[in-house]
Amino acid sequence: MMFEQASEEMRVLTSVALDQLSEQLALGKMAHDMSPPRNAFVEEAVQAPAETVDVKVAAPASPFPAVADLVEDMEKDLDDKEAQARAKILGMLGELIEAEADMVRLAFSAAPGDAP
Known about the structure:
This is Mediator of RNA polymerase II transcription subunit 21. 70% of the residues lie in helices and 0% in strands. By secondary structure, it is an all-alpha fold. The radius of gyration is 38 Å and the shape is rod-shaped.
């Protein structure tokens, strides 16, 4: 977003410079006398009061979040991820116990007469 804004600002500055250059050339200030006027054309554009300015002011679609709200959201995300990790660990422990129980059953079924 920062680069898009900078690009737009550069485009606007170039447009202002070209408009002022066109105006100066149309008035013949630079055509007859190659020395620049008292103020450079860009300085004149900056110093001249603007008759109209295109400005759009609007409230944001959603209010800016408070720092406390951001921290609360981060803590909730952390709690959710910890709960997911705990659930995965419990699932893995369950699978391990099942696999070990299967191995014990298999060992007892392989040697029905042998006692450990």
